[in-house]
Amino acid sequence: MEFAYTEEHALIRNTIRSFMENEVAPYVAEWDRAHVFPDTVIRRLGELGFLGATVPESYGGTPIDSIGMAIAIEEMARISASVAITVSVHTGLACQAIATYATPSAKQRYLPRMARGEWLGAFALSEPQAGSDAGAVQTRAERRGDEYILNGTKVWVTNGEKAHVLVVHAVTDPTAGKRGLSSFIVETDWPGVHIGRNEDKLGLCSSVTNTISLTDCRVPVENRLGEEGEGLKIALSTLATGRIGVAAQAVGIAQGAFEHAIRYATERKTFGRYLYEHQAIQFMLAEMATRIEAARLLTHRAAWLRDTRRPYHVAASMAKLFASEMCQRVTYLAMQIYGGYGYSRDYPVERYFRDGRITTIYEGTSEIQRIIIARHLLAFG
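Structure (tokenized):
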């Protein structure tokens, strides 16, 4: 791997860090407790160009390479994992799928508004009986003339109730197995789209996650992504990009928890000495820093492979697996350093601990990532 961080990457990091520290950090704990979705923050990120990071300039975007986007997501998650996942799903899943596979007319209708942050995007793949197994999707899309009629239920849709644009995966040919899946752009205010309640989650309390039901929802043929039967390819390809985003989010969560822990270790005294003077705490901090840096480099390697148009899907799974598992360990150690105070909501590390837990689950569980990696190593499946 040969890559160097550019001046643009430094600008991205500095811009997002300043924005998050000034406009989000003072309120993040309050928003988490009250389950407040930060609409104003998301709009401001759109004004800064970060919601159009995966949108071509010809459609009003401000393209950022994959390393730059990983840096941006990390810096967001360092302060607020909820903001990070909201942006990551919008850019890495919804905008990316539309920019890559939509018809020119659909791109023109959706991408400029999504790039400006006027319309937020969501990705609707999981169903009550189809989580990690994307091939088990049961939502149906029946072609009738120039329309498809969609019926089914999607669950765990991040951004759901705040989104105007859904990327929905549905079965167009029930006899074709995994080759019978297709993908569509659906607007949430169309007849037949019903958005359920916001899930009451352990973490990410300032993001929204909904069940979405489709009942005889009419979707124009021009809103299909790619050809009929390409839905699984589109879903898996898009998720591979999304896994780089989740890896970056995990790095950011861990980095935020680590910074709070090291600050606390320099302020708190036990047995007449500052915490950092105890070798046990030093070992914890050393382990945390090393694991974070290793995860960051794996994440940026996957992003670099994508930027240089090399195979990156397995690298993305490795980064997502390692970074998400690392996040569990680092946030655990941060709570240990805080002791009893770490268990209190008056201190920030318990929020990092809660927010980090989901990173091993969504965008493919750790077990799914191990399957992907093992199949590549053993060349089967």
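The first strand starts at residue 121 and ends at 124. The mean pLDDT is 95.
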